[in-house]
Amino acid sequence: MRWLLFALVSLLPVASSLQSSGVTRGGSGIQIGTSDRGTHSKSTGLSGGRGHSGVRLGDARFPNSTRQRPFTTTTSTTPPSIPKVTIAPHSADRNNSNTLRVGMMVPHKSFAVREYTKAVTSSINMLQKSSRGPKLKLFEQYDIHVKVGMKSLTPSPTEILNSLCNEFLPTNVSAILYLMNYEKYGRSTASAQYFLQLAGYLGIPVIAWNADNSGLERRASQSNLQLQLAPSLEHQTAAMLSILERYKWHQFSVVTSQIAGHDDFVQAVRERISDMQDTFKFTILSAILVTDTRDLLELVNSESRVMLLYSTREEAITILGAAHDYKITGENYVWVVTQSVIENLQTPSQFPIGMLGVHFDTSTERLVSEITTAVKVYAYGAEDFLNNPANSHLSLNTQLSCEGSYGESRWNAGDLFFKYLKNVSVEGDQGKPNVEFTQDGVLKSAELKIMNLRPGLSKQLVWEEIGVWKSWKKEGLDIKDIVWPGKTHTPPQGVPEKFYLKITFLEEPPYINLAPPDPVTGKCLVDRGVHCRVAKDSDMDEMDVQAAQKNESFYQCCSGFCIDLLQKFSEEIGFTYELVRVEDGKWGTLENGKWNGLIADLVNRKTDMVMTSLMINSEREAVVDFTVPYMETGIAIVVAKRTGIISPTAFLEPFDTASWMLVGIVAIHAATIMILLFEWLSPSGFNMKVNPSDAAQKPKNPSPNHRFSFCRTYWLVWAVLFQAAVHIDSPRGFTARFMTNVWALFAVVFLAIYTANLAAFMITREEFHEFTGVDDHRLAKPWSHKPMFKFGTIPWSHTDSTLAKYFKEMHAYMKKFNKSSVAEGIEAVISGDIVSFCNREMDAFIYDGTVLDYLVAQDEDCRLLTVGSWYAMTGYGLAFSRNSKYLQMFNKRLLDYRDNGDLERLRRYWMTGTCKPGKEVQKSSDPLALEQFLSAFLLLMMGILLAAAFLLLEHLYFKYVRQHLARSDGGGCCALFSLSMGKSLTFRGAVYEAQDILRYHRCRDPICDTHLWKVKHELDMAKIKIRQLEKDLEAHGIKPTQAKRKTGSLGWWRGCFQSSDRHSQAESLAVEAPHPLPPYFDSFIDAIDVARPRDMTRNHVVSTEYSDKFLPPQIYRIPDDDAARTEIAEMETVL
Q: C or N: which end of the chain has fewer Cβ atoms within 10 Å?
């Protein structure tokens, strides 16, 4: 009970609207209320109340039609007075489970009860006997009792509440059939809203057919259990938009009053437009809620020529009367109205001729025919509900009461039963689809009449049906001849009449391109756009336009982004235009306190609009009006590229610095050290054992026959890394060899990766001035860089004024480099030496970013490049004089073009150039030029220079370092580091060196020959002396022992005293050898050609390396004869 009281309290606003005789709309002068007819119905319609008279009809069982069971119809009327709410006692048959009770609310009309009863009876009989629909088993077990209540036009809230509590609830109705054809849209609509909401609160489904259903507030219903058989507001909006689609009216305005449901109407229009956007594009220019007639002034100032009106008939009279006064109901204006305006087909004088409207039949005959449909819907739903075994525990007897102690306050099974009613499919009339409902309870298929207000036979305006709209057909609109506003027979255009605009421009590709017209015909070709005048106004005086269009000094052809956009504006808005070039050729800046160029023409109102690539800034916005930007831009820098240059370090660029450091320092050294270490530790590798003889006195040196060292390991690692075909000394140990193979595997992977990426870097590089932007210090402070860069822009442009304002020093410097046009600036950047920047006329050109991007893309040789970030971001806009009436219509179109992608399509079309990133890929098959692998030659040159440096170091070593190193190192440690260095410190190395010097020594002057002869003579005398001494020894009985040699002579010191003359044989020395001589001793002696001069300044060290051709120092000993040793030393010194 508390819940019911809360629901009733929440409906008090609706009920209060029913207590008054009229409703005043916000002081607008439009009144909504009951008419005289409604008042009369209220006062007299119920005076003869029909009480509880009833008729009992129906078949007892189907298909046995001979046996009759009573079908009961009870009719009651709403009393004229406002009685107190009373709770009727439950009827005696309330517990009869075989009776289905239905309530039916119909309009109160005298002598109409018989028609209502007959309609119910005939519909039941049709359901029992019809062969078109499904066979219903409902009537085999159930009777249907219909409780009929009649409602006046404007009942009070108490009467509505009594009809539910005292008439329908006591009879346990499971559904209510609500059929009304009142169309007052005032208190009658509010009463219908109140009744339907009460039924929804009680949980009772309602099958409705009410003519004023479009006036119901859908948001007011918290529990919508209503099925609507009449065409809904959505159907009316769909039919109205079909009319607009038929006559290609793309734009319109929506006008509503404060009628109930006006927000729903606007929303329904928007939803329908959204559904149709793929087939037909609509534009709602404005949606006006009329609370005062002055609200229509918005239509006067707009370009709307088609209006959709939703209001009551009384409100429409006021609105259309004001529209007539504002002259927006004339020949070019079309008003399309809803059912609520047409109402009863009477035509007030304020309605203009040619109006169109949608309408459906609301007569009593139509209402009676809809009773049959409503009964069928109920019967089909009850059949489905009762046949479902899941509902066997549920009953269609509601057991509701307005008093909580007598029954339930809400029927819990009502929502479930409503779902069955909503899902029915009832056969329709001939040629029409079945009656079905959407999930919102709205009729799926509806039919509406299209009405036209035209003169009748008596010359009085009448609504005449001119067509039918059927929602179930794709082309659902069928219209006959129409009398249009102004009594014409041709439909209006739906848009304003074309107006004329003078448009000023300044050429700038790609926005506006200039080209001469055809010299013969004077016409512009398709790809060259439209005619535009470049001559001054004074030059056109008394000039024939047709002749002037053939002269390119007067007219040229304009094309480009802005021209395509302008033509699109012209087609959709509807205007004609003339394009005129600005006389002074300037964009528009302040010059001596006055505006020049394009802005001056707008300020002085010499033109209606400026359309070109005009940048928006605060100074210009202060004097003219701009539209929303149609493209973003900023100040950018363009420079030229220097081609044919390759980086000197291109061969290093496949890897970054860290990778090269990892390979060069870590990997190579680690591999070298590990190979040498494994060779050192291997049992079969580097032998660290000392010689067995005299081990205590000799240092621990490597094995004398080993040919492996640290530097040779380096040589091995580098040779394997670069896969060089050179002689290398391999390690002997297994582990060291395995490590060498691992390094070889690493080298294969490394080289594969390196060579795979090398080709990408061994190509020609392009160099350019990489400025960060306009604020780059090299540009902002040009004198800070030597040599100074040369750059400029176009004077009296947005870029020039911006730089003058924020970069005064830069602006003053660049004045001498400024150009009069963008083309000149680009040519100045490109011109000059292609390879170097020294001879260029300009290093950079500063201008609008989008224009520069376009020109860069148009350069076929791709010699240009925009660098840095854009500065002073802004946009291009259309400019109008202050308070121009055209601004809003262009703004709206620009926003639409941006949303639907038209601006983006134009941008892609006009901004695309021949210089594309993918174009240079096709050049990959061309032969390689020298500069593309120049770094390889640079690498070779670096290697030569490095080798020369090593040669210098080698000479320095032999001249200054070796003699000092030989004193402290016996050849062991140095041989471990470098075998060649160790050899240079050994006796064998000294012998080889002396041999080479003596072998290749040749005298080049007589003094040298004389000295050489003197030394040879002294040598011969020494030999004679030696033989004399040997003879003296033999004379004293001392005969020197001679070892047996292969040659038969001693010859141990023969190499030291042998003449350079190979034809004379030296005699053997009588010197005792300390040990037996080895068989290879002769070879050792023969290797020394002592006949040639020797450099005795070089140190002689003992060799620690064993060789088959060299004598170890341990096997010989110089005799202890001091005299002989002294004499020999003296002779060596002489030699």
A: N
* Backbone phi and psi for residue 744, each to the nearest 5 degrees, phi listed first: -65, -40
**Quick check: bond before 699 cis, omega within 30?**
no
Mean pLDDT of 1076-1083: 44
Residues 1009-1018 pLDDT 10s: 788 888 888 9
Task: Name every residue whose Cβ is closer than 8 Å to that of residue 157 and which is 6 or more positions away in sequence.
Answer: 11, 14, 15, 18, 19, 194
pLDDT in tens, 439-461: 989 999 999 999 999 988 877 88
The answer to whether 454 is annotated as binding is no
Give the whole-angstrom CA distance, residue 756 versus residue 607.
64
**CA torsion, ordered 594, 595, 601, 605, to nearest 10 deg:** -60
d(CA 1047, CA 942): 55
Here the tokens at position 890 are 């262009």
151: which residues sit within 8 A by CB, 6+ positions away? 78, 105, 106, 107, 108, 159, 160, 163, 180, 191, 195
380, 915, 1074 from 796: Cα distances, Å:
82, 30, 109
Distance of CA 385 to the CA centre of its chain: 54
Place of tokens 């010359």: 459
Q: Indicate if the alpha-carbon torsion angle 637, 638, 640, 643 is positive or negative.
A: positive
Report yes or no: 313 and 251 within 8 Å, Cβ to Cβ: no
Q: How far apart are CA 841 and CA 792, in angstroms?
A: 11
- 237 in a known ligand binding site: no
User: Mean pLDDT throughout 410-433?
Assistant: 90
Q: Give the distance between the most distant pair of CA atoms in the chain.
A: 191
1077 has pLDDT over 60: no
How are beta strands 555-559 and 530-533 bridged, if at all?
Answer: antiparallel
Q: Which residue has the higher pLDDT, 428 or 5?
A: 428
608 and 884 in contact (C-beta within 8 Å)?
yes
| Residue 178's pLDDT band (cuts 50, 70, 90) | very high
Query: Radius of gyration (Cα) for the chain, nearest Å?
Result: 58
What is the per-residue pLDDT for 134? 63
The tokens 């016409």 sit on which residue? 523
Spatial distance between the Cα atoms of 685 and 653, rounded to a whole number of angstroms: 40
Does residue 142 sit in helix, strand or coil? coil
Mean pLDDT, rounded, of the chain: 77
343: left (phi over 0), alpha (psi -120 to 50) or beta: left
Tokens 């003078």 belong to 502
Closest CA to 136 of 128, 144, 145: 128
The reply to whether 898 sits in an annotated binding site is: no
Question: How far is residue 641's CA from residue 116's CA, in Å, rounded to a whole number?
Answer: 93
Q: Which of 1098, 1107, 1129, 1094 is nearest to 965 (CA)?
A: 1098
Pairwise CA distance, residues 219 & 727, whole Å = 97
Q: Any idea which residue has 């016996």 for tokens?
A: 970
Q: How far is the C-alpha of 288 from the C-alpha of 266, rounded, in Å?
A: 10
Which phi and psi (to 5°) does residue 275 adopt?
A: -70, -30
Model pTM score: 0.54
With CA atoms as reference, report the closest residue to 702 among 1101, 1102, 984, 1105.
1105
User: How far from 454 is each of 332, 335, 362, 448, 485, CA to CA, in Å?
Assistant: 16, 13, 21, 19, 9
Give the closest residue to 805 by CA, choosing from 636, 596, 599, 590: 590
Residue 132 neighbours by CB under 8 Å, 6+ apart: 427
Tokens of 676: 């040498």
**Rounded Cα–Cα distance for residues 382 and 278 (Å):** 41
Q: For position 97, what pLDDT does the model report?
A: 65
What is the number of other CB atoms lying within 10 angstroms of the CB of residue 865? 18
